[in-house]
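In the laboratory, one determines a bound structure by crystallizing the protein with its ligand and collecting diffraction data. In a computational setting the workflow is compressed into a single prediction: the sequence and the ligand go in, and a structural description comes out. We illustrate the idea with zinc ion.
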Amino acid sequence: MRAMLALDVPEYVGSPVIMSDFPEALDCHAAMRRLWEYLDGELSERILEAVHAHLAICANCYRHYDFERQFLAALEAAQAEECAPPRLHEQVLEALCAEGFTP
Ligand SMILES: [Zn+2]
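The predicted complex, in structure-token form:
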């Protein structure tokens, strides 16, 4: 299962003993609550590592993480695309005006 995770995790996370050594080990609920901040890079290093560690061992949360990450990437890609050309704006506006719309 772990082999499926493409996450770059520190070595120490792999050992099952570690979780007890890790004071901020998160459960799924706590990890998911911090997912957006994690993706935005807004977490302190300690929490960030805790979320990171959880994602490395929890396939369920990792799926959520992966989805959100792709969602954000798609959003960024969409925003990077150019706006509609000015001529299209005019055409839409003309069409709307023809229908009685006042800008
Ligand atoms: Zn989880």
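Residues 1-5, 11-21 have pLDDT under 50 and may be disordered. Keep in mind that any predicted model is a hypothesis to be tested, not a measurement.
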